[in-house]
Design a protein that fits this description.
3-stranded parallel beta sheet, binds S-adenosylmethionine, Rossmann fold, about 300 residues, 9 helices, single chain, about 35% helix
Length: about 300
């Protein structure tokens, strides 16, 4: 049997798309592996609601309903549970069982869809992405459910709103959002540049990263998540440590770094022919930032 990456939090169709196989193949995989989908569905709801309760101990059932998207009855039922009350039958197993090596969520992947799904499974309680501030042509969402809100500074597709409208969203309302800014500065590092994929200067790149982190922070509710893709840039002998800058600015804005995923590039980069001075970048990052419930207290001096 082919080893597949199976995500118990996703539908069978989504698992099929993610693995590039048919729905029938996923069904067969589930059957052959003895995975209990019904058990996993209940377990997923239980963990999502418990996580939301833990993060928002003062929230009522109606507030948790709004956050999670489950019905009020479901929320009330699961909020009352102290422990998960069901057991698997002995011949079955759960896709959430991390003792099985192919269920383990790894920090490194060569697929951004796999990384986005891993983040969904671990952190995003309502099980889908809510808002993409840099939608572009939506490559991120080829294998998974589209976000509810799509923005871009230069919208290219119908249904994608100008980024200026994102600034008008009510503050503190998003549960999660995604940012993926260009990595190229015009004239350096690459000859192929356009407004979708590049900045005019280093200063513009750093300023935009900071402004977008601040936008996400304002629009997220406490306990919300910003998923930000970024990478360091190098050209000639110079290195721009954009990822370090992003983490630093996120900390200063009030985020906590919950997790860090590394996307490894499969592409064979062309050799420019000259002597190599620094390591060629074959990776980018997906940072998972968390808007803390309470800001750090200030130390009195
Ligand atoms: C790397 S692409 C995003 C790709 C997208 N994640 C996808 O999956 O298709 C970067 C996006 O950032 C947008 N962008 C460019 N300059 C920007 C700026 N100054 N502020 C905000 N977004 C900008 C571009 O329009 C582009 O759509």
């Amino acid at each position: 049997m082919k080893e597949l990456s199976y995500y118990p939090n996703l539908s069978i169709a989504e698992n099929a798309r993610l693995n590039g196989v048919s729905i029938a193949t996923i069904r067969k995989y589930i059957q052959d592996s003895g995975i209990d989908r019904k058990f996993d569905e209940i377990y997923k709801i239980f963990t999502n609601i418990k996580r939301l309760q833990e993060q928002n101990p003062e929230y009522t059932a109606s507030q948790i309903k709004r956050l999670s998207g489950y019905s009020l009855n479901t929320v009330k039922k699961y909020m009352k549970m102290v422990e998960f009350p069901y057991c698997l039958s002995p011949e079955k197993y759960s896709g959430f069982d991390l003792q099985k090596s192919n269920n383990i969520i790894k920090s490194v992947s060569n697929s951004q869809t796999v990384i986005l799904n891993s983040i969904l499974q671990l952190y995003i309680n309502n099980n889908h992405y809510e808002c993409d501030f840099t939608y572009s042509i939506g490559v991120f969402w080829k294998g998974i459910r589209q976000p509810d809100l799509k923005f871009d500074k230069y919208p290219q597709l119908e249904g994608v709103k100008p980024l200026s409208e994102a600034f008008l969203l009510p503050d503190g309302t998003l549960h999660n959002c995604v940012i993926d800014l260009p990595y190229i500065v015009q004239g350096i590092g690459s000859k192929i540049t356009d407004r979708f994929t590049s900045f005019n200067s280093e200063e513009e790149m750093f300023d935009t990263n900071r402004e977008m982190i601040e936008l996400a922070y304002r629009k997220l509710m406490k306990g919300g998540y910003l998923v930000m893709k970024t990478m360091d840039v190098s050209y000639s002998m110079k290195q721009l440590w954009v990822s370090d800058y992003v983490v630093q600015k996120a900390f200063e804005t009030g985020f906590e770094l919950k997790d860090k995923f590394i996307l490894v590039s499969n592409k064979r980069l062309l050799n420019s022919g000259g002597k190599q001075h620094i390591a060629r970048k074959y990776h980018s990052y997906f940072f998972v930032f968390y808007k803390k419930q309470k800001p750090d207290c200030q130390i009195l001096i």
